[in-house]
Specification:
The complex is a heterotrimer. Chain B is an all-alpha fold. Chain B has three helices and no strands. Chain C has one domain: Cytochrome c oxidase, subunit III, four-helix bundle (Four Helix Bundle (Hemerythrin (Met), subunit A), Up-down Bundle), CATH 1.20.120. The relative contact order of chain C is 0.16. Classes of the chains: A mainly alpha, B mainly alpha, C mainly alpha.
């Protein structure tokens, strides 16, 4: 890889350079400070991206394993079964405890180690400073710390699988008393891992907000920011203010597990025929409140960056401005605010009275409004556009109806009466996976195809991209759509045998096999993507700085892998909004933000 | 920057700091003294919180210079306070509104 | 390109990066302690029996600690003011006093804790002690964090005064904001845990 430090530079004074000072990058940086403990947001963004993609693959693998058990309950798993060890799968047949571990860790890894680090840590870190014309994040050392604390948290989470008794097995939601009374230590490691991950998130969110507020280029007022930046901005506030209660709750549960406290343990619990030797007097619902106070804003953390990515790609590939920019901005701010006051719609079945249930039902219905506004604005943005159907655009287009299905299926869950029937069924799993999988993950894939040329100077293969898209689209629907059917039939979630023992599940059991084959099909179709990703780094078609002919600032910084420290030769200046495409009377169909008329 | 002007500027601030210190001491004594009155619980809570809020505001406004801070900080803090209040009271209201007798060892 | 507004304020926001950063951090800390206070409220209101703070804990010790912490807040802001008045010697004195007072606070807390632990009144004893130890423990961790930061700025970090006066003064201001927050939390903790 070429070295873009300024060592061996022409003497100062002959160059009108921005960094005429004794700065670390003037000297040769060692491999360690350049690539491992880097403070450059681009390197850190790549670190986050690679790590999170690996975690996404691992989380997917856990599910692929679970889906075998669901399709063929109590059958020995071929090939891998014997490798899992007698503690997890004696004779290759998955134990219920192991199934539960896979389930809890699949959720945890996908949400906290996969999607959010990729959406925020990866895309946010790499692209956002470039988009606002900044030389780096406001606090580069803090940025580096954020990544490594995330990495440590990931190590702790992975290590928990190898502890005696295995990993956490009480769901990603970790409800007490089960999570506390389960005799094994996996849960303790989970809690410690979460504390690391939450800390990483907090440090990152502070960095993002300060960077966006303070380091915008000259002329880049808030209402000229690309919508991607607004999405990251609101997301960071969610992370900043919603995560601490979960950190506190995690400490409380940790104390319940190791210090014998009873924050969440009610009096009189009997476990294994013996009364539990704790003081009691705790409240299990306290955990649920503190957990969901974070976890609801967390799901908006999952979707908001995706909306940001999709918006950029749609504007670029329709060659026209986004419809309703101001509306989009106000909607996303309102969405962010509302996300803090809907959490107990996850708790309708905990015996809440009608007053509080109505309150949360109402706020939940209200929050669907800005979501619909954003989705509608994105759909309307397509009207009259000169649409280019490249791979990022295909994924971005698919995001729209998929997120639509995810959002619509949220409505019967947000209404308390219908939630009575649907809570804790496969309907819920179908709902949130539609939003996160063909929703957010499709948007993240779109982002990878879109910004790959900026990071590497090469373009990914369109043919492989389209194959990846087609297969993924078909199979992802094959996995998650039948879940609505099973859920409406009352099949519970988190059943290690997929509902085989229940009479009411019998008519819909066959869908388990359909879903499993679809899951394995989806996995197969990621192979062209993985191959494409690595092959293109070395052998992809070389392109210039702005292969997509986009208007936003990140495309003006010269492509050279990696981009020079400091990003821009001179600080860019912005003269107009972010989506000046097809401006009437102009020869070119796009006008970069830093180009005067 | 005129060092002399800055010096005078800060000198008047210093007087304020010591006055606030005095006020905080007095309020702390009041906090403890009131507790000896053994008021009814709701009254005791109200008084204790009001005194604490006054003390906290003094620290925030004068030691933390919040009285002269920028709009953006006020916005961030306002947002925080709104969510703080929600987190303080909504779980409580949710439990008060509950079907009773479901959590042993508690009044819920 | 160098990162701007690390020392001087950005004209339209009126802030330097560090000041905004620390206030955002404090906002997140407010939410952290909010969760713990919320837990306290829920556990207490829901409990069938809950002791009065003054029955279980030593009010005189906590009163003393409150005075100590508030005083340390004054010495902290005076440390910053001394730098603004270009008096490095006084700064050293005031910051040193802050660190000393912080240690006094911790020592008192140590005596409090060991007294209860010896009497078998640990966090496992009942939910009252559980929340007492957790909330004061977390607060204590924040005090330790503050000591580490202040000690660094008093010692090796103070070298920056020679080369970048304004930047160093800002650092003290930011450390001060954190320290005042720690004091602020205690101002609420004291009556809630010890007097009610």
């Amino acid at each position: 890889m070429d070295n873009v430090t300024t060592a061996g530079h022409a003497p100062a004074g002959t160059h009108a350079h921005g960094h005429a000072h004794a700065h670390a990058d003037h000297h040769e940086q060692s491999f360690v400070t350049k690539w491992i403990f880097s403070q450059d947001h681009k390197v850190i963004g790549i670190q986050y991206t690679v790590t999170s993609l690996l975690f996404l693959l691992f989380g997917f693998a856990l599910m692929a394993l679970m889906r075998y058990q669901l399709a063929f309950p109590m059958q020995p798993i071929p090939v891998i079964g014997t490798m899992l060890g007698a503690a997890n799968a004696p004779g290759g047949i998955m134990l219920p405890e192991f199934y539960n571990q896979l389930g809890a860790m699949h959720g945890t890894i996908m949400v906290f180690l996969g999607v959010v680090p990729l959406a925020v840590g990866g895309f946010g870190n790499y692209v956002m400073p470039l988009m606002i014309g900044a030389p780096d994040m406001a606090f580069p050392k803090l940025n580096m710390a954020s990544y490594w604390v995330y990495f440590l948290g990931g190590v702790v989470m992975l290590a928990s699988f190898f502890m005696p008794g295995g990993a956490a097995q009480s769901g990603w939601t970790s409800y007490p008393p089960l999570s506390v009374i389960t005799a094994t230590n996996g849960q303790t490691w989970w809690l410690i891992g979460m504390i690391f991950l939450i800390t990483s998130s907090l440090l990152g969110s502070i960095n993002f907000i300060v960077t966006i507020v303070q380091l915008r280029a000259k002329g880049l007022g808030f209402f000229r920011l690309p919508f991607f930046v607004w999405a990251q901005f609101v997301t960071s506030f969610l992370l900043l203010l919603a995560f601490p209660p979960l950190e506190a709750a995690g400490v409380l549960q940790l104390m319940d597990k190791v210090a014998g406290t009873s924050f969440f343990l009610p009096s009189g619990l009997v476990v294994g025929n013996r009364p539990l030797d704790v003081s009691g007097g705790g409240n299990s619902l306290l955990w649920q409140h503190l957990f969901w106070f974070l976890a609801h804003p967390e799901v908006y953390v999952l979707i908001l960056p995706a909306m940001g990515i999709v918006s950029e790609i749609i504007a670029n590939n329709t060659r026209k401005p986004l419809w309703g920019y101001r509306v989009l901005v106000y909607a996303i701010i309102f969405l962010g605010f509302m996300s803090f006051i809907v959490w107990a719609h996850h708790m309708f079945m905990t015996g809440m009275g009608t007053t509080m249930s109505s309150f949360f039902q109402t706020t939940t219905m209200i929050i669907s409004i800005p979501s619909v506004i954003i989705l509608s604005a994105l759909f309307l943005s397509l009207y009259g556009g000169s649409i280019r159907y490249n791979t990022p655009m295909l994924f971005a287009l698919a995001f729209l109806p998929m997120f639509g299905i995810g959002g619509l299926t949220g409505l019967p869950l947000g209404l308390a009466p219908s939630d009575i029937h649907l809570h804790d069924t496969y309907y819920v799993i179908g709902h949130f996976h539609y939003v996160v999988a063909p929703g957010t993950i499709f948007a993240l894939l779109a982002g990878i195809y879109y910004w790959f040329p900026k990071v590497t100077g090469r373009q990914m293969s369109e043919l492989l991209g389209k194959i990846h898209f087609a297969g993924s689209f078909i199979f992802i629907n094959g996995i998650f759509f039948p879940m609505f059917i099973q859920g409406l039939h009352g099949v519970n979630r988190r059943l290690y045998d997929g509902g085989v023992q229940y009479a009411h599940a019998q008519p819909v059991l066959h869908w388990n096999q359909v879903m499993s084959y679809a899951a394995w099909g989806l996995m197969l179709f990621q192979i062209p993507f993985i191959f494409n990703f690595f092959w293109s780094i070395w052998k992809g078609k070389p392109v210039g700085s702005n292969p997509w002919k986009a208007t936003t600032l990140e495309w003006t910084a010269t492509t050279s892998p990696p981009l020079a420290h400091g990003n821009f030769e001179t600080a860019p200046e912005v003269f107009h909004g972010p989506y000046e495409y097809s401006v009437p009377g102009r020869a070119q169909d796009f006008l970069p933000q830093n180009q005067r008329d | 920057m005129d060092a002399h002007a800055a010096h005078d500027d800060i000198s008047s601030h210093v007087k304020t700091y010591y006055m606030v210190f005095g006020g905080l001491m007095v309020l702390t004594i009041i906090t403890v003294a009131v507790s000896y009155l053994e008021l009814a619980t709701p009254m005791a809570i109200t008084v204790a919180l009001i005194v604490a809020i006054i003390k906290g505001s003094l620290v925030a406004m004068f030691f933390m210079h919040l009285a002269h801070e920028r709009k953006i900080i006020y916005w961030a803090l306002t947002l925080t306070i709104i969510f703080f209040i929600f987190l303080m009271f909504v779980p409580l209201f949710t439990n008060l509104d509950k079907i009773s007798g479901t959590i042993p060892g508690t009044v819920w | 390109m160098e990162i701007p507004y690390t020392v001087e304020a950005r004209p339209d926001t009126g802030l330097a990066n560090g000041k905004l950063g620390v206030w955002l951090f404090l906002a997140s800390e407010v939410m952290l302690f909010a969760a713990l206070f919320s837990s306290y409220i829920l556990l207490r209101v829901g409990s069938t029996e809950w002791p009065n703070g003054s029955e279980e804990l030593s009010v005189p010790l906590a009163f003393f600690n409150t005075v100590v912490l508030i005083t340390s807040s004054v010495t902290m802001v005076m440390a910053w003011a001394s730098l603004k008045m270009n008096n490095f010697g006084k700064f050293r004195l005031f910051l040193g006093a802050t660190i000393l007072l912080s240690f006094v606070f911790l020592v008192v807390k140590y005596f409090e804790y060991s007294h209860h632990l010896h009497a078998g009144e640990g966090p496992w004893h009942n939910t009252y002690y559980a929340i007492y130890f957790t909330i004061t423990g977390l607060h204590g961790l924040h005090i330790i964090g503050g000591i580490v930061v202040n000690a660094y700025l008093w010692g090796p970090g103070a070298k920056m005064w020679q080369t970048a006066k304004e930047r160093f003064t800002n650092r003290i201001e930011i450390a001060g904001l954190y320290w005042h927050f720690v004091d602020l939390v205690w101002i609420f903790l004291f009556p809630v845990l010890y007097l009610l």
